[in-house]
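Response to reviewer comment R2.3. The reviewers asked that we include at least one raw input/output pair. We reproduce the pair for UDP-arabinopyranose mutase here without editing.
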Amino acid sequence: MAAIEASKSSTPLLKDELDIVIPTIRNLDFLEMWRPFFQPYHLIIVQDGDPSKKINVPEGFDYELYNRNDINKILGPKASCISFKDSACRCFGYMVSKKKYIFTIDDDCFVAKDPTGKEINALEQHIKNLLSPSTPFFFNTLYDPYRDGADFVRGYPFSLREGVPTAVSHGLWLNIPDYDAPTQLVKPRERNTRYVDAVMTIPKGTLFPMCGMNLGFNRELIGPAMYFGLMGDGQPIGRYDDMWAGWCTKVICDHMGLGIKTGLPYIWHSKASNPFVNLKKEYKGIYWQEELIPFFQSVTLPKDCTTVQKCYLELAKQVKAKLGKVDEYFNKLADAMVTWIEAWDELNPSTVLANGSTK
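Raw output as returned:
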């Protein structure tokens, strides 16, 4: 917990160990409001759409920007696994990062305020979540026992109180909720005003809908599983990129004994996307997920899957075998999952240690 205490000093937490990944098609004026929190960190900007368009980034930020031409140049034929004209392209930023941690945020997410009116440093809360353990094997009714003012309740097994490493910190949103198109259509004016001051570990064996617009993760622990799939241009589905990554990641975290937290921090989601456009993107996914969820609920990974890469390749094999009959798209997606891992390993060669494990 010493690392968390460091937040009380003037040095930003994990300043040299974390990249902020932002997918965008527009000028990044929204960074001005995040300047007090983001400026000390390195940004990786993944420009979607027309690569000839110039994206303006406010002065004073340390960043690298990749457009489609850069992605094609770096990955060559393997660039086919990176989505085009969809925010799923953000996962290219995860691949080229060399840092231990990633925070990713959408460009329509602004700084939120807590009930006292204080601006929320979302990045700092994600870091706190990631640097403290998770408790996926036994639910604590006071939520995160490692937060100030909380602990394990009576009846919580002492043998489980050490917890497990936290791989993912999943944040939430005030204002525009992350609804699917049918819900948007029937509740067009609904806004989320409920600020719940809680962080909890998602229990082992429980899936969840992961939203990629306010997300932190430990890249060294789970990075290769954070593939946002094939979405957007030329694909029959959209808006399931983060869902797919979340389902794959949760299954692998459960297998590897890692934890995922959800709850704080909140961001202010400023802009509702068009529900009719969303419905067109989601239409097939709404049907398909009724078969996808049982697949992920029942999938098992063999014991010899001892790395995230091995787990992910095994998942790809099972996706092809069991979901290929749902639609040909899943055969294509399974192939892209394999390509993703090949590209990841090319850009992130492992160091084999003396004991045979990798670093």
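Residues 1-9, 351-356 have pLDDT under 50 and may be disordered. Residues 203 and 331 are 30 Å apart (CA to CA). Further pairs are available on request from the corresponding author.
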